[in-house]
Structures are given as structure tokens and as C-alpha cells.
Write a structure and sequence with these properties.
Structural class: alpha/beta
Shape: globular
CATH class of the domain at 79-106 and 205-387: Alpha Beta
Bound molecules: pyridoxal-5'-phosphate, zinc ion
Strand order of the largest sheet: 4-5-13-10-11-12
CATH architecture of the domain at 79-106 and 205-387: 3-Layer(aba) Sandwich
Length: about 400
């Protein structure tokens, strides 16, 4: 059962009732789901009888009734010990979280599984979101399974696989000239006044809850430890913020102490608002003009959770760094050659970032590092074609 108690604003700390429909806080911030962690008694090891999916962390997920869960088998993806790649880099404790094994081939399934399930439970029938690609595909799939209506706004250059999945799952899809930012604007204009629920990144509280489960999984998969560092390809930052929130929950639940992994955020050189804000020392990030990268998941010029991403990166003594598209593609090949996985350019970006961090002495030796390979490369054949 869920131990959800209320929603709380991480910026102004205002509370909202659980089990009502909410988007943002009145102050404009995203809202966090809060749980009664004293009563939840979710302690490791999580019982073996629980299914190997993200619903094994049922107590700290917001869905009240099992009957509301819309699942395609998301979560509990493998954490591979990357021995060959690690050998090359002189990093014996390198791990790859292979998110390509989620339904719809990306970790967006985690967020959408939880958000669509909760929307379903709250009696919502129509969902809408702007998407750089994978979120739209996942929303379309879970909406189809739930028998709900999905409306998706995507940039014109979105990979074919994403456009296909939306079409096949019966989502209403509109292609927009511009980035996900313009898609959001067009969505709000064209659906204004209608009876629909906005599932945009961090504009509702529950996609974050789905993505936070990566932190619980990594802990279980490393036999009850967290790694020294995590490298996360950052668009809206849902996963990074979600895991950072999960660490606090895990501490309150008694899984871990005060120590946190160092959080490294990687972005594309053609769209790096967090990297610029990190470098200039600002608390929020200015919008990135003319975002351009073939890593579609990273083509996010402004993130509503910017202050939360920057807080996590800074307080963990991490960093935010930008890498080029060409380097990402080379890294996709290197991961494919050494570890047998075909990841997306966003996944490749984490390896490029790792190399920079090793070269600059940020990381090294026997430190344990987890790279998040956030989607399958099979959805990016247009971009990967130049490698063959
Ligand atoms: C959306 C996406 C990202 C960025 O995830 P956020 O949690 O929004 O920062 C990274 N990689 C892929 C493949 C994505 O689809
Ligand atoms: Zn607030």
C-alpha cells in the first residue's frame, strides 16, 4: 500500500492535500509527493516475492489502489558491471544502468507509468504533454493501456520511432516548429479551457516519483550501497531530481546514512542551460536560445526544476558539463563494442562526460560510478546511421 500523505512545495514549503488533482504550487514550483516514512517500513532487502519492476517500492509510490496501476513491466532494469569498458578507463567499478530495457525503450516509461496510473486513479480521462520524443511515446503507450486519451506536441525533427509510437498507440500528435519549449506553449494555447490534464515534465508531481525508483534499484543492485558518483544526461532533470529526493527518503527509511553520491549532470554543447548556470554560479538557469543537438532528450532549453538540479549537483560536490554530438556518437559505438549495448546519444553522453571527469581528476581509482543509459539506440537510427 501507499503511504502518501500530502504534496509539498520544495521551494516555499506550502502543503497540498493528497488525492486531489494538482499541477504546480501557487508559487510556480513543482510539487513533491510526501509519505509517512515512519510507518512505511520499507527496508532492504525488499522481499524476494516482489515483482522485478518499480512497483516493488509500492510504499513510496503515490498510487493508493493496486487496481489503478497501469503497468507494462517498467523498472528494475539491469545494472551491468562494465568490466571491459572499465578496464580501458582504469576504472574497475564502472556500472551501466541499462534503461533501454524499459517498455517503449526508454526510462520515460518509469515516469509515465506512475503518472498515468495516478491520473487514472484520480478519474482523469484526457492527458496532454509536450515531448522531445520518448516521453510522448511512453505517454501514448500507457494511455492506450489505460484506455485514456493522449494529446502530444512534438518538435518537427523528432526521431521517426517516436512519431511512429505515438501514431500506433492512437495518440493525437501535433508536430511543432521549434523545441519542446514551443511545444508546451502551443499545447497550452490550443487546449486552453479544455478538459485535459497537463503531464509536462515536473508540472505534475508523479513522473518524478516513477523516475526516483532508479535510486532504490541501484542501491539494491549494488548489494546495499550507493555508488560514489552518478552521471546523468539532463534535459528536464526529472530523474536526477527524483533520485536526489529518493536519497532523503532512503535515509529516513534507514537504508543509508548522510553520504550521497556525487551527481554529475551532462548536457549537449548545443543546449546546455544547466552547465552555464553551474559555471556562472546562478541559482536558476537562463533559457538556452536556439537549442540544437541530435540527442533529442537533451534538447530542453529551459527546465522548471532548474534550481533543484543545480542544488543537487552543487551540494553533492558534483558538476555540470557539456559534450559534443560527435563525441556522443563515438561513445555510443564504444559502449556497443565493449559492452554489447546499443544506447542512445544521451547514453553516449555519459561516457564522454566520464572521460572528461577522469582526465580532470574529478573521478578515478576504485571509485564506483554509474552511467545512466537512458534509452535504446534503436529509436535513433537517423542519428546513428552516420556511424556505419
Ligand atoms: C528525457 C530524456 C533524458 C533527460 O531526462 P530528464 O529526466 O528529463 O532530464 C535523457 N535521455 C533520454 C533518452 C531521454 O528521453
Ligand atoms: Zn511553492
Amino acid at each position: 500500500m501507499s503511504f502518501l500523505t500530502h504534496l509539498e512545495c520544495p521551494r516555499c514549503l506550502k502543503h497540498y492535500a493528497a488525492n486531489e488533482v494538482h499541477n504546480l504550487c501557487a508559487c510556480g514550483s513543482t510539487l513533491f509527493a510526501r509519505y509517512d516514512l515512519k510507518r512505511a517500513r520499507l527496508t532492504p532487502p525488499v522481499p524476494k516475492s516482489r515483482a522485478p519492476d518499480l512497483w516493488r517500492y509500492r510504499e513510496v509510490l503515490p498510487v493508493e489502489n493496486d487496481g489503478s496501476i497501469i503497468s507494462l513491466g517498467e523498472g528494475f532494469t539491469p545494472l551491468f558491471h562494465a568490466r571491459r569498458l572499465g578496464d580501458r578507463l582504469g576504472l574497475p567499478n564502472l556500472y551501466l544502468k541499462d534503461e533501454s530495457q524499459n517498455p517503449t525503450g526508454s526510462f520515460k516509461a518509469r515516469g509515465m507509468a506512475v503518472a498515468v496510473s495516478k491520473a487514472h486513479e484520480l478519474g482523469i480521462r484526457r492527458l496532454a504533454a509536450p515531448s522531445a520524443g520518448n516521453a510522448g511515446g511512453a505517454l501514448a503507450a500507457y494511455s492506450a493501456k489505460a484506455g485514456m486519451e493522449a494529446t502530444i506536441f512534438m518538435p518537427e525533427g523528432t526521431p521517426l520511432a517516436n512519431r511512429l509510437e505515438c501514431a500506433l498507440h492512437g495518440a493525437k500528435t501535433t508536430l511543432v516548429a521549434g523545441s519542446i519549449k514551443e511545444c508546451g506553449r502551443v499545447m497550452r494555447e490550443s487546449l486552453a479551457g479544455g478538459d485535459w490534464f497537463d503531464l509536462s515534465t515536473l508540472r505534475e508531481p508523479y513522473r518524478l516519483e516513477g523516475k526516483k525508483t532508479m535510486a532504490y534499484e541501484v542501491f539494491e543492485q549494488l548489494d546495499g550501497r550507493l555508488p560514489d558518483a552518478m552521471i546523468y544526461p539532463t534535459g528536464g532533470g526529472t530523474g536526477l531530481i527524483g533520485m536526489w529526493k529518493a536519497f532523503d527518503e532512503m535515509q529516513e527509511l534507514g537504508w543509508i546514512g548522510e553520504r550521497r553520491p556525487r551527481m554529475f549532470s551532462v548536457q549537449a554543447q548545443g543546449c546546455a542551460p544547466m552547465v552555464r548556470a553551474f559555471a556562472t554560479g546562478t541559482e536558476v538557469a537562463e533559457e538556452w536560445k536556439n537549442p540544437a543537438t541530435l540527442a533529442s532528450g537533451l534538447r530542453v532549453p529551459a527546465a522548471i526544476g532548474d534550481f533543484l538540479i543545480l542544488r543537487a549537483v552543487r551540494s553533492s560536490r558534483g558538476a555540470a558539463l557539456a559534450v559534443s554530438d560527435a563525441d556522443m556518437l563515438r561513445a555510443v559505438r564504444e559502449i556497443a563494442e565493449t559492452e554489447g549495448l546499443i544506447t542512445s546519444p544521451e547514453g553516449g553522453a555519459t561516457l564522454v562526460a566520464l572521460k572528461k571527469l577522469l582526465a580532470d581528476g574529478f573521478l578515478g581509482g576504485h571509485e564506483s560510478v554509474v552511467l545512466f543509459l537512458t534509452a535504446t539506440g534503436y529509436k535513433y537510427t537517423e542519428a546513428l546511421e552516420q556511424l556505419v
